[in-house]
Amino acid sequence: MASYAPLSNNQVSHFKTFGFLILENLLDQASIDHWRQQIWRELETSLETPETWPKQGGLDGYQYDPPESALVHHPALTPIIQQLGGGAFVPSGGIPIIRWPEQDKSWQMPQSGHIDAYGGRWLPFMIGATTYLYDVEPSGGAFIFWPGSHHTAHRYFLENSTHVDGSFLRTKNFSWNLFCDNPETGGKEFVARAGDVVLWHSYLTHDGSMNINDSPRIALFARWHHHRRRAPAFRYEIPEDLWKYWVI
Ligand SMILES: O=C(O)CCC(=O)C(=O)O
Ligand SMILES: [Fe+2]
User: Fold this and answer.
1) pTM over 0.85, yes/no
2) Which domains are assigned to the chain?
């Protein structure tokens, strides 16, 4: 096949093995500037005036302005998601999340994380993406993930397939440690520049982390679901082959 593929074979194979893929400098400066403007406008403060920053949150229920400017619609991501899902993955949403500085605290690696899709209603999806609007240094509120943990979650759901609707969260002695590939070694901080992107499999264990630096960690999130997400037969199926509904 001679058709253009945005990701190389090596990148695809890294994604399949480790459940994540970092794409440096993927997003253009104009998009980053536009997001910075709209988010500071919504917060009614600015990077230069820390005394007026909220202590936490600030973007609950955020709607991108205009809606097409959401990360999930960014033209640099669309062909990549097309390559991975063959057209079956559709934009699902995702909001910005800020980790405001907490400089009086001491930084710690989160003990374990979670997988998404269970924050309220069960919303299964295929793949997520995270980017930052400003560079994030170590201890600066990085997105944390456990490389390879998508295989752990897959094995868990193969053995407990009726629990994929979220009932696993209510089983006796449940702990998210079950989903970390190796809770002892801890996760990996996504230390990155503004506009770098990490793509992550929906089964990849991840979490937020404390920001003890002086600048807010502003991250944008995006998720894509399968166009058959609403069909019960699809929702409850745990394929032996983790990549059954992918084209990779
Ligand atoms: O803020 C972060 O880095 C992670 C947030 C997260 O995992 C979530 O909202 O599900
Ligand atoms: Fe999450």
Assistant:
1) yes
2) 11-236 (2.60.120.620)
